[in-house]
Amino acid sequence: MISANAYGVESQGGSFKPLKIERRDILDDDIMIEILYCGICHSDVHQVRNDWGGSRYPIVPGHEIVGKVTKVGKNADKFKIGDYVGVGCMVDSCGTCQACKDGFEQQCENETVWTYNSVDPHTKGLTFGGYSDRITVNKRFVIKINTHENLAGMAPILCAGVTTYSPLKKFGAGPGKQVAVAGLGGLGHMALKLAKAMGSEVTVFTTSEKKAEDAKKLGAHGTIVYKNKDDIRKSGLSFNIIIDTIPADHDINALISTLKPNGTMVLVGLPERSTRYSLSPSILMDSNRSLTGSNIGGIPETQEVIDFCVKHNIRSEIELIKFQDLDEAYGRIMKNDVRYRFVIDNSSL
To answer: How far apart are CA 15 and CA 11, in angstroms?
Structure first.
């Protein structure tokens, strides 16, 4: 085992503090990575607060990791020392079930090993995330980043990017398709950028005039600022796809009513466990509409979205912070006060 420096929380309701953790030394199929940047996902906040239940402490969050290879196992010759790489939400899976073979490791039929708050199958200890100076990861879960430009802005793509890219790709975003994005936050602004780069016309639903202005600057073709369901429904049958990124209770029926016949709305924002949506069946049956969900994406799709963003020069809009600012940053996330993703500069450790 190798000692590493990190920031984490030791108990529910605790503040962030420096911690010493242990990483496994590399096995034959492993890569060791010096972490340069790590994005802060809203799910980090939920895990630290134990909003979903099941959090195990101490927690070192972080699954939007960008770094540089420092050590390579003998079977990991796809990588070399000095390569820029990423690690997203997962660090292992069985690799043998049908879901894993199909490239959907997040749906592993045995056990997906999450980047933090899971059990490492090799050490039997907890996995720790990217709020740290280094990490050891199986080669199957390391993403190549073929650029050195704006690496900090690349970090959130490993979660927010693939979470929105996957359903956009699955449901056919592209030229001639009208896409709506509900909510303009960490997920929403990436959905907007990706759908636009795919060739779709993109409209953003938001309750904020300021975010409507931001959406236009980010390339939205239209914005709908709403205060109630009637404001939403005024847009009529407009959209082939809606990417709903709102991680809180809201009127999903009003949004679904704006889908064209045979359109699909995809839920990607994960609210607190106690949240329950009310769905009117007639809204779906009326025009053969569909409501579905999507959970991040597998490793092939993660590599795909990273390559897509390198090709199209897409990055997340970020605010770079130090580890010492974590408690303040979490407080601001809860107040929806970030444009549009915090990213930690890991050199501040």
So the answer is: 8
For 181-215, the pLDDT digits (tens) are 999 999 999 999 999 999 999 999 999 999 999 99
b/e for 61-98, b at 16 or more Cβ within 10 A?
A: bbbbbbbbbebbbeebeebeeebbbbbbbbbbbbeebe
Are 249 and 303 members of one domain?
Answer: no
Q: Where are the beta strands (DSSP E) in 145-231?
A: 178-182, 201-206, 222-225
SS3 343: strand
CA dist 218 and 39 (Å) reads 20
Q: How far is CA 133 from the centre of its chain?
A: 21
**Cis bond before residue 58 (omega within 30° of 0):** yes
Query: What pTM did the predictor assign?
Result: 0.94
- pLDDT tens-digit profile of 12-39? 999 999 999 999 999 999 999 999 999 9
User: In terms of residue numbers, what domain contains 234?
Assistant: 160-293
| Residues 176 and 288 both lie in one domain | yes
Instruction: Specify which residues 90 forms β-bridges with.
Output: 114
